[in-house]
Specification:
This protein has 774 residues and is an alpha+beta fold. It folds into 4 domains: 45-164, no CATH class; 166-286, no CATH class; 302-309 and 316-566 and 574-619, no CATH class; 674-773, Four Helix Bundle (Hemerythrin (Met), subunit A). 49% of the residues lie in helices and 12% in strands. It contains 25 helices and 18 strands. The strands form 6 sheets. Strands 9-12-8-3-16 form a 5-stranded antiparallel sheet, with no helix packed on it. The chain has a 4-stranded antiparallel sheet with strand order 4-15-17-18, covered by helices on one side. A hairpin with a 3-residue loop joins strand 17 and strand 18 (605-609). Helix 8 (193-218) packs antiparallel against helix 10, helix 17 (519-527) crosses helix 18 (532-545) and helix 23 runs antiparallel to helix 24 (734-749). The protein is elongated. InterPro entries: Bact_TGase-like, Papain-like_cys_pep_sf, TgpA-like_C, Transglutaminase-like. It comes from Paenibacillus paeoniae. Residues 524-613 form the Transglutaminase-like domain.
Length: 774
């Protein structure tokens, strides 16, 4: 008998497809149930307060951009990691363990600071403290001021997280952040509208979650229904907010419309908005026209010297070198009585990679040392020259080892020792060079005359303005009277200035009588204090007045060579492994900008001199001898005021260490004794009241809190009527409100007195309700 199997087989396939579809639907429902359960469980853990911590941290991070180019990169790293970890702790740990969270966040701030702070150790171990004591002092000193940045942000974050619990305060915080960013955008050269867009995006997301929090507190059943379809609820909001953020950040035509009212008003009047904050906003040409102080940094215009400056410690470049040196920039040779100009402009030679430069300075009697350097710029500023140890002899590469050096990129001036950059091109981010540095042979220099082979050049580097007062020449002759040769006379001028004049980055200009318009004369006889420009110009002029050809040079001091590891020095500081040449990676800051003097000696070329008090030129010794180490009390950058306070700063380090230990110990003690402290505070608050009065007081505290949360109580209403109304909107708390009401009425109107245990239970119930209503 034939069997027909077509229909049953088709039915089976249909049944299998139906079963697979039902199974897939069940899995989808199970996933949705798990997601709903997770969201509901998280909602019960006071989720909104956790997100407030995250939003506050994100807005503070965005607002930190107002410190762009004023903070060091490590300061931003410490700030961002501090805020990020603080928010993470608030999200993951229980909100009730506040002391534990604060202690953990404090320890994290110290660790983050230690990890990212720039530990620049330039002082040798002290015999009094030993290596471990020295390491502890230097480590704690290295945490300053970075530690205070992290702790300040921790405090600010905690305060705003606690404060921004209502919608009005949320608007106040975000509005203040936007105001700060827009004002900073108007009065600084920093473009901050991207940050404003980010803050607005965060505020909108915050507003959405604030609405959900209010919905949970007032209509929990409605929120529960919404959470059954979380994807449908949150996806539209995420899409809308993301689109707004993308448009705000990427559409250029919108940017000019987003301006603060002051800028719009100034633009409407056809006026520009002036910016104020330091070197970032003003060029060096602007400084020359201003009265008051500028910021330290490499000068662009030296026609008029004088005034004072504020230290700018922002990094300018890093130099990886085989030998410690000054990083030379430009040469100026014509003193005008007010500043320096360069009257001789000799066309430079074409520079080709790996080919040595031609040197016309006449150094046939000198010994040389080859110094290899790799310079990496930390700022976007452009300069007319490339910096390096003097004189530069070879260029290896520009920007990248594999990149070809363009033929028109730079020229070498053998007369000025300048490697001039083509200003029509983008200034290089990095470059590699070698310099042929003359070793200091004082014996040979004492046998050489200070005279240039070219009469024209000799006359140029001896020229002085006719208006130079005679007392400048007389002082130079008096100081050098005992010199037996040109080198000793140059050293006598250098020593006189170093020992008899005071370094001050803000000299008292009121000492100038106005009787002399000459810059050097005013410094030598009236001010008698100043910074490198004063000292170096005075030496160059005094040297010329007695027949020593000299020129004024500007560039940077070596900078700071950080220790490569954070541990105690141990064998690293012994005699065999001590770094005699100062080789390593130096961080050069704007505060390291400097000027000095070069004097010509026949057969040796231009020899540098350092007349500025508190500074020391890192000469190379002849015959391959080790360079004399820089002593701890010598300064390696143009920050004498800061360096002179190193010892006092280190003496305060122990105070900082003691403070940290005390804070950690006190926090640990509070955690251990938190229950006893809570009981003590309870006794202090309620010690003078009877148990019934204490219960009434706690009930009144709950009433005041409910009023702040918008749960009003009319004047004619009794507490029972008010709680009945509150229970309608807070159904999940009905039993708790009823317990509070019964306790209040019993204490207020009952004849029997409450026990201490009943007071404590009542206080805990009120505290619980306040926590749930936040």
């Amino acid at each position: 008998m034939a069997t027909h199997t077509g229909e049953p087989g088709l039915a089976g396939l249909r049944y299998q497809a139906s079963a697979r579809s039902a199974c897939s639907a069940r899995r989808e429902r199970d996933r949705m149930k798990k997601l709903t359960f997770w969201i509901t469980s998280y909602l019960k853990l006071r989720w909104y307060e956790r997100f407030v911590s995250l939003f506050v941290a994100a807005i503070l991070m965005s607002s930190l951009s107002i410190f762009e180019n004023y903070w060091w990169p490590e300061s931003f790293k410490i700030a961002y990691f501090t805020l990020g970890f603080t928010a993470l702790v608030d999200i993951l740990l229980p909100l009730k363990g506040r002391l534990i969270r604060l202690l953990l966040q404090f320890i994290a701030v110290v660790f983050i600071t230690f990890r990212f702070a720039r530990m620049e150790w330039s002082v040798a171990p002290s015999t009094n403290t030993g290596e471990w004591g020295w390491w502890l002092q230097e480590t704690l000193a290295g945490l300053h001021p970075f530690l205070w940045i992290g702790l300040s942000l921790l405090v600010i974050h905690s305060l705003f997280t606690t404060w921004t619990v209502t919608r009005q305060r949320m608007f106040g915080f975000t509005g203040a952040s936007i105001l700060v960013l827009t004002v900073a955008d108007s009065f600084t050269p920093i473009w901050l509208w991207d940050n404003v867009a980010v803050v607005v995006f965060i505020a909108l997301a915050w507003l959405v979650l604030n609405h959900l929090d209010r919905l949970q507190r007032t209509h929990p059943e409605s929120l529960k229904e919404l959470m059954e379809y979380p994807i449908r609820v949150f996806t539209p909001a995420v899409i809308v907010l993301s689109v707004l953020l993308v448009i705000a950040l990427n559409v250029p035509s919108i940017a000019p419309m987003l301006q603060d009212p002051y800028t719009i008003w100034k633009k409407a009047r056809g006026e520009d908005v002036q910016v104020f904050l330091g070197e970032k906003a003003l060029t060096r040409e602007d400084y020359a026209a201003q009265a008051g102080n500028s910021s330290s940094g490499y000068s662009r215009n030296d026609d008029v010297l004088g005034g004072g400056f504020d230290y700018d410690f922002s990094p300018m470049m890093t130099v990886s070198t085989s030998q410690r040196s000054y990083w030379r920039g430009e040469t100026l040779g014509q003193y005008t009585g007010q500043g320096w100009k360069n009257a001789i402009m000799v066309d430079g030679e074409r520079v080709l990679p790996e080919l040595p430069f031609f040197d016309e300075s006449g150094r046939e009697r000198a010994q040389f040392a080859e110094v290899r350097q790799v310079v990496t710029m930390e700022r976007d500023d452009a300069y007319p020259v490339l910096f390096g140890a003097a004189p530069i002899s070879t260029v290896h590469w520009i920007n990248d080892e594999s990149s070809a050096v363009m033929a028109n990129a730079m020229k070498w001036s053998p007369y000025h020792w300048e490697l001039r950059w083509n200003t029509s091109l983008t200034y290089p981010k990095s470059y590699s060079i070698t310099s042929s540095v003359v070793t200091l042979d004082e014996g040979g220099l004492r046998t050489a005359e200070s005279i240039l082979p070219s009469n024209d050049l000799n006359e140029y580097y001896l020229s002085l303005p006719a208006s130079l007062p005679d007392r400048v020449r007389e002082l130079a002759q008096e100081v050098t009277a005992d010199g037996k040769n040109d080198y000793d006379r140059a050293k006598a001028i250098e020593t006189h200035l170093r020992q008899n004049y005071i370094y001050n980055n803000k000299p008292d200009l009121s000492k100038l009588s106005g009787s002399s318009a000459d810059f050097v004369d005013g410094f030598l006889f009236e001010l008698q204090e100043g910074y490198c420009d004063y000292f170096s110009t005075a030496m160059a002029v005094m040297a010329r007045s007695i027949g020593l050809p000299s020129r004024w040079v500007k560039g940077f001091t070596p900078g700071v060579l950080p220790v490569e590891r954070y541990g105690p020095p141990g064998e690293m500081m012994d005699g065999e492994r001590y770094n005699p040449t100062g080789a390593g990676m130096y961080t050069v800051r704007n505060s390291d900008a400097h000027s000095w003097v070069e004097i010509y000696f026949e057969g040796f070329g231009w020899i540098p001199f350092e007349p500025t008090s508190g500074f020391r030129f890192p000469y190379l010794s002849p015959a391959g001898e080790e360079m004399e180490p820089v002593l701890p009390d010598e300064k390696v950058s143009e920050t004498p005021e800061v360096a002179s306070n190193i010892s006092s700063g280190l003496s305060r380090v122990w105070g900082l260490a003691s403070l940290i230990v005390l804070v950690v110990a006190a926090a640990a003690w509070l955690i251990v004794k938190r229950r006893e402290m809570a009981k003590a505070w309870f006794r202090i608050r309620h010690g003078s009241l009877s148990p019934n009065e204490q219960i009434v007081m706690e009930a009144n505290r709950l009433i005041r809190f409910c009023k702040k949360r918008g749960m009003k109580r009319e004047e004619h209403e009794t507490l029972r009527e008010a709680i009945a109304g509150w229970s309608q909107s807070q159904k999940r708390l009905q039993e708790d409100f009823r317990t509070v009401l019964d306790g209040f009425e019993k204490a207020k109107y009952g004849a029997s007195g409450a026990t201490k245990e009943e007071v404590e239970r009542y206080t805990n119930k009120v505290r619980y309700l306040i926590g749930e209503l936040k």
